[in-house]
Design goal:
385 residues; five-stranded antiparallel beta sheet; 11 helices; 5 strands; globular
Length: 385
């Protein structure tokens, strides 16, 4: 059996064992806390039979948005009310603008309290099929273009999602240290992704170690900045909800923000780590007598071209996720002293700086590891520096 096949089988077994362990943990430790009383609420797929009446006008400033009310005759397609036909008043507003047509599927919100009349309203469009369709298209393109590696990338992507949703979030929710849980999550997901892509190879070990060190470095830097500018999980918009959760579950709020940095910087750091490892390995394939010092210097030169684009990618990602907030700050004419010393800007800058430094430092870390592991011949004067 080929070495790559053995590696694939071993990692497949490890993924199965890990996934089964996560399933058993969640089965024995279910998340039962709810911040709202939703026992009477349910959501089900429904279909518009006909639009009985529509009193709505199109927004003059935004094409495709309507304001007013629709009277819909609809049929519930799932749940306890399956097959029931109902009349629904669908109010169209700025924040709720789900305008429906005959034959269109949607998600209905069914409020069925014990001592009151059942109320059925329009919750949202039925989006799941489109989401799954494009997700399938994405995976198909990955396999079509990437071949075997594309398939392994798809598997690693699904495993990463499962690890975050099935392992990381429940563990943090149940009171375990967010820092250590996220470190374990980062190590597991990075190792699985990189080993599935390249097998048990020197460049895989280089990329994995460099990624782990870079992400942990990002967290350390953020923790230092956060302690100096006095920000924590209590400064976030969701602090009140987190406090309510912590009172019932033991959630460690002060570490949540720090743990989030580890996860948010993982993708960019892993990209840099693997790029350095792969490029330097190719150099050794074409120049077997390269010295550790030359290989290290080559890694730095390659890394310099990557630093600018990857750092911009990270900063732009943070900016994009906060664009609406930045627009609101601009609209309110926030003064410089107020803006630069606000909780929001302090957290965003701390995230951007810590992630950027981690990317930059991953370059020499990856180059140094490559110089150590890749060099095939050592001469007496083969110094690194």
């Amino acid at each position: 059996m080929k070495k790559r096949q053995k590696t694939d089988i071993i990692f497949l077994l490890l993924i199965i064992v890990f996934s089964f362990g996560v399933y058993l943990y969640n089965d024995k430790n279910p998340v039962t806390l709810s911040l709202i009383n939703s026992e009477s609420l349910g959501y089900a797929k429904a279909e518009v039979i006909e639009v009985v009446e529509e009193n709505a006008r199109e927004d003059e400033t935004t094409k495709g948005r309507y304001y007013g009310v629709q009277t819909l005759r609809a049929r519930i397609l799932q749940g306890d009310f399956q097959g029931k036909e109902v009349l629904i008043d669908n109010y169209l507003s700025t924040t709720h603008n789900v305008r429906l047509h005959s034959g269109q599927a949607f998600i209905a919100c069914i409020d069925n309290p014990l001592e009151a009349e059942t109320l059925i309203t329009v919750y949202s469009y039925y989006r799941a099929p489109v989401i799954f369709m494009f997700g399938g298209i994405m995976i198909g393109i990955m396999v079509l273009i990437g071949g075997g590696k594309g398939l392994r990338s798809a598997v690693s992507l699904l495993f990463t999602m499962y690890t975050i949703l099935g392992f990381m979030l429940p563990m943090i929710f149940n009171g375990y240290s967010p820092i250590w849980v996220c470190i374990v999550t980062v190590v597991i997901t990075a190792a699985v992704s990189l080993f599935l892509l390249n097998g048990n190879h020197k460049k895989t070990w280089v990329a994995t170690i460099a990624t782990g060190m870079g992400v942990i470095l990002s967290g350390i830097i953020f923790q230092l900045i956060a302690s100096l500018v006095h920000v924590s999980g209590f400064n976030t918009d969701q602090a009140e909800a987190l406090i309510l959760i912590s009172q019932n579950t033991g959630l460690q709020i002060s570490q949540v923000l720090f743990a989030g940095i580890l996860i948010s910087s993982l993708g960019a750091v892993m990209d840099v780590g693997l790029s350095i490892a792969s490029s330097l390995y190719e150099i050794t394939c074409h120049k077997a007598d390269i010295t550790p010092r030359e290989l290290f210097q080559s890694g730095l030169r390659v890394g310099k071209d990557m630093i600018g684009t990857m750092c911009n990618t990270l900063i732009l990602a943070f900016t994009g996720s906060s664009l609406t907030t930045l627009l609101m700050l601009k609209a309110y004419g926030i003064e410089y002293a107020q803006l630069m010393n606000s909780d929001f800007i302090a957290m965003e800058i701390a995230q951007g700086i810590s992630g950027t430094i981690a990317i930059i430092m991953t370059v020499p870390i990856g180059a140094l590891l490559s110089a150590v592991l890749y060099s095939r011949r050592r001469s007496p004067d083969a110094n690194w520096f």
